């Protein structure tokens, strides 16, 4: 391992690998990426990998629309030999309360301003989009065809390979143990395999981002929360879009191979690093999902697992440089939707480090760490 | 439906059945879960006389041994048996074992002690078209023939010259099929000399240093391409030749079915001599997780006699944890441990011994 680098990136998930690539593409030399396990072993390899653009704020619309534009050309740009499995089969978002209907109306108006062709769906039209849906209690829904999903492993590996091709050193099974600073700048990163002198560090440690903050004495108010997910045997095509219900708090989707994945958020989940799986989840998730999609009652679950959401206090990521420590960049707190905005996040961080003009300049003042101290929480109405 | 048992045993092969009988005899509330409709595991396929160790059952057919165990089990009212029931998962958070009966009913089972005796599954090989109908594992061929009376085909090529490949070839010949040849990538025949000699006398050639190149067929298997390999197991490219056949039977070893052990968080070791990943265990067959025992092929692919002894020992270990320890059990236990040592003695047991040496004691 090198003992000197220009940039050290902590974390080999989609965020860290994408940042490594975007930096190398901008001709930054001597980039080292450190991953304590293997690539995609964190949230990325465990996620639902859904990509939606139906958001309720300008910021998230810009991040997600920009990311989908990147996803569309990514395989070619990264010269990746395999299919990233980008399928734009849409997100279907049902509303069950008047309040949701009102919110969705506001959202759709904003989304259309941004050029998204989002459909307003009446209950009697729902089955033309999701043939197996039970429309009982359904008041309305929104549907956007250009949302979709990808294979998260391939995306993670594609970025990593392209970064390596451009000279990035990736060290797996290398854990960052500490970071030394002097006044307001970084001196070196210590790992279980040796030290690396450097002045720029990117915290892309996902569920462990807060512990990286502790290493430099910065309080990152993120915390981790287990989210569970399960998958069934493959079936003939039953429904195409991701179905995401804020009311029931679930999402479900049939994968290209026919298997159906589904997950729920559990409001009683405790903060922490627990990554076990529970029977209570399997029961609750299947009962909620089959209420809305009854034919899935006969589907057989074959596997379940869990991963960590890195939650921020306003469920919106922290993207930017610390104001108290030069060269300490954070891309964390994605709160369960970091995969879908990884392409834009990585472009923005790379632009910050290379002092380029930002594609979304207001990120600097709205998604920075200090917003919490200023009391300027970022309010996104469309999060689970 | 929710259930509680003192001890749960998963798998009713020789290991699970022997464990069940010890616990039945000791009066413990015991459950045996078996995914097949019948009890006996691999024993049921074994229409041949038992080979190998100096076991009291040598010379008895496997399926008759299964009957003996089952009869004893039936005499214990404290032992419940769920057949057609698959243990599908263990949830450490809730300490619940989930099992599914007849693909319809779910059982939530909690327990004090558990013995995993799930056996092993067959390995496959990587080659072009290896999913064509007509390509079987040796165990599947045995099940079809010996349990259901169905001959899988008429022109057979067997891959693997270990005891299983030799025995299944012999059974196919007896059933009237034409075994065209047995191939093995290794330079020597893997199984016992007596079995190989019997096959050779019946006119079946055994090609060592050969492997399968690819399978050919539109909707079902029609032929295979075989190829020679050199001393480093590399294919010799100009040595490919074609043999027609409608069945390709793969007898290339077994791998412990350890999924539940992984789920339970047992420390696992990869030991090629034992067939794959096996749990660390102490002399009572207790894994690194207290109250979780293993027995039989899942603890390391071996043979039925050792599976029976390990089942016995694991059951005694569970009794010990339950505080049901007495002189009679102590005696049985010393006997079983000695017996196990004995059957692993000598050159035949060398591979197993070197494998076991690698399984860290906890
Ligand atoms: C069940 C589930 C479903 C999800 N579904 C979706 C979805 O549909 N759409 C979506 O957009 N998002 C989804 N997400 C969220 C998404 O997975 C994450 O936001 C995203 O993957 C974050 O990527 P990351 O690279 O920041 O984190 P990770 O992939 O977790 O990578 C962080 C890496 O840092 C490493 N690391 C940590 N500490 C150290 C250290 N000290 N030294 C070295 N390495 C370290 C970790 O090992 C890890 O590999 C889901 C998440 C879960 C758990
Ligand atoms: C062709 C052949 C010939 C053999 N001949 C001999 C011989 O002559 N002498 C000798 O000593 N050995 C012989 N053996 C080896 C011997 O049969 C095995 O070593 C022995 O059966 C292992 O016993 P076991 O109880 O560990 O596993 P098994 O006999 O494989 O039993 C395991 C049982 O667990 C059940 N099970 C697995 N998973 C689950 C689950 N999740 N839920 C519920 N049930 C489950 C299976 O259905 C099965 O019934 C032979 C093996 C083969 C394949």
What labels would you give this structure?
heterodimer, A: 384 residues, alpha/beta, FAD/NAD(P)-binding domain, six-stranded mixed sheet, 19 strands, globular, B: 362 residues, 2 domains, seven-stranded mixed sheet, 29% helix
What's the β-strand tally of chain B?
Answer: 19
Mind telling me the CATH class of the largest domain in chain B?
Alpha Beta
Strand order of the largest sheet of chain A: 5-6-4-14-15-16-13-17
Largest interface: A-B, 7 and 9 residues
Bound molecules: flavin-adenine dinucleotide
Describe this structure in words.
- The complex is a heterodimer of chains A (384) and B (362).
- Chain A has 2 domains: 7-48 and 153-222 and 314-374, 3-Layer(bba) Sandwich (FAD/NAD(P)-binding domain), CATH 3.50.50.60; 91-144 and 225-311, D-Amino Acid Oxidase, Chain A, domain 2, CATH 3.30.9.
- In chain A, 28% of the residues lie in helices and 25% in strands.
- Chain A has 10 helices and 19 strands.
- In chain A, the strands form 4 sheets. In chain A, strands 5-6-4-14-15-16-13-17 form an 8-stranded mixed beta sheet.
- In chain A, helix 2 (58-77) crosses helix 8 (342-353).
- The mean pLDDT of chain A is 97.
- Chain B folds into 2 domains: 2-121 and 254-358, FAD/NAD(P)-binding domain, CATH 3.50.50; 124-250, FAD/NAD(P)-binding domain (3-Layer(bba) Sandwich), CATH 3.50.50.
- Chain B has helices at 14-25, 62-74, 138-148, 163-174, 193-201, 259-263, 304-321, 327-343, 350-358, and strands at 2-10, 30-33, 79-82, 85-91, 96-101, 105-116, 120-122, 135-137, 155-159, 178-184, 206-208, 210-216, 223-228, 241-244, 247-250, 254-256, 268-271, 276-279, 292-294.
- In chain B, the strands form 5 sheets. In chain B, strands 1, 2, 3, 4, 5, 6 and 19 form a 7-stranded mixed beta sheet that branches. A 5-stranded parallel beta sheet of chain B has the order 8-15-9-10-11.
- Chain B is globular.
- The relative contact order of chain B is 0.15.
- At the A-B interface, loops of A face loops of B.
- One flavin-adenine dinucleotide (FAD) binds next to helix 1, strand 4, helix 3, helix 4 and helix 7 of chain B.
């Amino acid at each position: 391992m090198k003992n000197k680098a220009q940039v050290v990136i902590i974390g080999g998930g989609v965020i860290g690998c994408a940042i490594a690539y975007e930096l190398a593409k901008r001709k930054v030399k001597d980039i080292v990426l450190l991953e304590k396990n293997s690539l995609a072993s964190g949230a990325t390899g465990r996620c639902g990998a859904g990509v939606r653009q139906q958001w309720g704020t300008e910021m998230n619309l810009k991040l997600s629309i920009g990311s989908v534009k990147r996803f569309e050309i990514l395989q070619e740009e990264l010269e990746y030999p395999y299919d990233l499995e980008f399928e734009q089969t849409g997100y279907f978002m049902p509303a069950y309360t008047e309040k949701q209907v009102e919110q969705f109306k506001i959202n759709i108006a904003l989304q259309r301003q941004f050029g998204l062709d989002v459909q307003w769906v009446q209950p009697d039209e729902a089955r033309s989009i999701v043939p197996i849906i039970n429309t009982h209690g359904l008041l309305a829904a929104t549907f956007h065809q250009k949302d979709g999903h990808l294979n998260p492993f391939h995306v993670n590996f594609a970025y990593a390979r392209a970064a390596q091709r451009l000279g990035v050193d990736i060290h797996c099974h290398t854990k960052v143990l500490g970071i030394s600073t002097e006044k307001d700048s970084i001196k070196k990163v210590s790992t279980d395999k040796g030290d690396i002198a450097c002045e720029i560090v990117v915290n892309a440690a996902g569920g462990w981002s807060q512990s990286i903050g502790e290493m430099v004495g910065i309080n990152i108010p993120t915390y981790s929360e287990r989210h569970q997910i399960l998958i069934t045997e493959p079936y003939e095509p039953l429904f195409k879009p991701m179905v995401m219900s804020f009311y029931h708090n679930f999402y479900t989707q049939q994968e290209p191979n026919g298997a159906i994945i589904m997950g729920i958020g559990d409001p009683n989940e405790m903060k922490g690093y627990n990554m076990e799986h529970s029977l209570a989840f399997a029961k609750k998730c299947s009962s909620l999902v089959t209420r809305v999609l009854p034919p899935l009652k006969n589907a057989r679950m074959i596997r379940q697992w869990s991963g960590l959401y890195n939650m921020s206090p306003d469920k919106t990521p922290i993207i930017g440089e610390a104001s108290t420590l030069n060269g300490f960049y954070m891309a964390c707190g994605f709160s369960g939707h970091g995969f879908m905005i990884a392409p834009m996040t990585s472009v923005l961080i790379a632009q910050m480090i290379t002092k380029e003009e930002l594609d979304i300049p207001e990120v600097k003042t709205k998604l920075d760490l200090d917003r919490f101290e200023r009391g300027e929480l970022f309010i996104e109405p469309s999060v689970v | 439906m929710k259930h509680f048992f003192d001890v749960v045993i998963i798998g009713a092969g020789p290991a699970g059945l022997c464990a069940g009988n010890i616990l039945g005899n000791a009066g413990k509330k015991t459950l045996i879960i078996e995914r097949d409709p019948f009890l006996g595991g691999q024993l049921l396929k074994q229409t041949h006389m038992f080979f190998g160790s100096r076991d009291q059952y040598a010379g008895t057919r496997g399926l008759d041994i299964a009957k003996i165990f089952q009869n004893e089990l039936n005499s214990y009212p404290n032992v419940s048996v769920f057949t057609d029931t698959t243990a599908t998962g263990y949830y450490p958070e809730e300490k619940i074992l989930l099992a599914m009966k007849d693909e319809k009913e779910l059982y939530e089972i909690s327990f004090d002690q558990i013995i995993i005796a799930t056996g092993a599954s067959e390995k496959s090989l990587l080659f072009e078209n290896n999913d064509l109908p007509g390509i079987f594992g040796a165990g599947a061929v045995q099940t079809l023939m010996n349990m259901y009376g169905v001959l899988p085909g008429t022109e057979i090529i067997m891959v693997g010259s270990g005891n299983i490949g030799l025995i299944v070839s012999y059974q196919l010949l007896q059933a009237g099929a034409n075994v065209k040849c047995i191939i093995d990538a290794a330079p020597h025949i893997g199984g016992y000399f007596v079995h190989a000699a019997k096959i050779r006398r019946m006119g079946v050639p055994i090609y060592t240093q050969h492997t399968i190149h690819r399978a050919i067929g539109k909707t079902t298997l029609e032929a295979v391409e075989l190829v020679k390999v050199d001393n480093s197991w590399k294919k010799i490219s100009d040595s490919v030749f074609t043999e027609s056949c409608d069945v390709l039977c793969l007898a290339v070893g077994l791998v412990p079915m350890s999924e539940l052990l992984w789920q339970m968080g047992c420390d696992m070791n990869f030991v090629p001599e034992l067939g794959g990943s096996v749990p660390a265990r102490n002399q009572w067959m207790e894994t690194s997780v207290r109250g979780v025992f293993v027995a039989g092929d899942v603890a390391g692919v071996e043979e039925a006699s050792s599976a029976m002894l390990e089942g016995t020992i694991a059951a005694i270990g569970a009794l010990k944890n339950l505080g049901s320890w007495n002189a009679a059990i102590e005696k049985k236990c010393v006997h079983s441990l000695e017996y196990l040592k004995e059957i692993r003695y000598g050159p035949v047991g060398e591979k197993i011994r070197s494998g076991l040496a690698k399984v860290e004691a906890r």
